[in-house]
Amino acid sequence: MTRHSSWLVLVLALGARSGTAQAPPSRVNTIGERWPFAPDGSVRIVNPSGRIRVIGWDVDSLAVRARGSGRLAAAGTASVRTLVVTGRAGLEVRVPRGARVWVKSVSGDIDVVGVDGTLDLNSVVGAIHVVGTPADVTAETMGGPVELAGGTGRARVKTVSGGILLRGASVDLGASTLSGTIVVRAAGWQRGGAGVQRGHFESVTGDVRFDGELGRGGIVELESQSGAIALRVPGTTVADFDLLTIGGSVTNRLTADVAQRGALRFSTGAGGAQVTARSFKGSISIEAK
Amino acid sequence: MMCSEREAQLNEYVDGTLAAEARALVEMHLAGCVGCREAVAELRSLVDGARGLPRAIEPASELWTGIAGRIGKGERGKGKRWWRGALAAAAALIIGFAVYRLLPSSAVFYGPEVDGWAAAQIDYARATDELAGALALERDRLEPATVALLERNLGVIDAALRESRDALARDPGNVELRALFAAAARQKVELLRWATRAAT
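Output (structure tokens, whole complex):
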């Protein structure tokens, strides 16, 4: 439904002649277009098979360069613009840093650099890479990997088989994968952040690794059906740890506490973070970084 | 008609777990989007209804009767693929929600409620069967590589679910096992919903 409705809206938007600046679809070899654009404007990009690169810049305009054999249609105003490629073409889109960016792809990779606004990125099998400090990121790809580097206020990442790598000073992180691995390298207060205040990481068969600083009072949950769960936190971390594996083993190198029948609960001080790890048959390990 | 890309965000909005800035953005969007407003109203109604339910109730059985009927009607009409996809997505959402609501948080233990749990499992199985059926009708619209990826991962998750189910058969009251089973079940429902959405 949603896909059809999106296309319908798109077609209507492209067909509407009043109220929007309309350009007929252009055959792409190498073309460049540029429009005035609001600092917090919204751009929607649909490019099924070509690579999409979105770059934030300190200019109140939106510029697109397309290269390939497909066609590019662009419609919209100074606050909302839609770019649609039919056929195959690579896109490089420059947007104001505070822009809200929505991208949909099937097989193309999506790269976003230097955008501070909201990102909503979706691909079927392409990879997704984000570098910068966007306020909010939603990234989903079935077969490709996802990497967020730099830090976000909030991120929700989902893959089926692709690996997920989250790096930087983020506050609220959620990552889910079926068979991919999840690696979180969370920078905290030592690098100007607050540590992870809320984190939920789950996989079915993939490993889950959390390596970084926990926010004071933060809540972090790690879950895997059969993958290994590994935690590396600073030795000075104050937190309550609750680790349980039904068929695997628990290894604690952070304190002297010893697991009993796959379960280990201990605290390194009051008022700190809460960390929960659950696995069906994977191992769980914790150590100081 | 809800904007598909906002589905997760709208759920969090209704749950009240969005940060202030994101919440403001959602409200701005809602002001101009009738479909999302309707979706939020439906979700709120669902959440309000679920809050009033005792834990041992069997909510999904009743829900499913209506959903299955609606999906059946959708399948009879040609050119209604979008509608079938929407219903499948709605089914997944509601069944997933029902399974989720039946479960305790992983940190909380309470006594076994085998009847409610068994009913939830049956409803989950029925929901995934229906979604898989809807997907089967559309699978030729997916790229062969995507179909292969999908089948490989369905195999992975089915194996994981089998293991959990076997373990639950040996230890039916284990709340942690139930939570892990439910997490894997949610993943399967989401995978099927995702694939259905991609195909339609």
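The radius of gyration of chain B is 18 Å.
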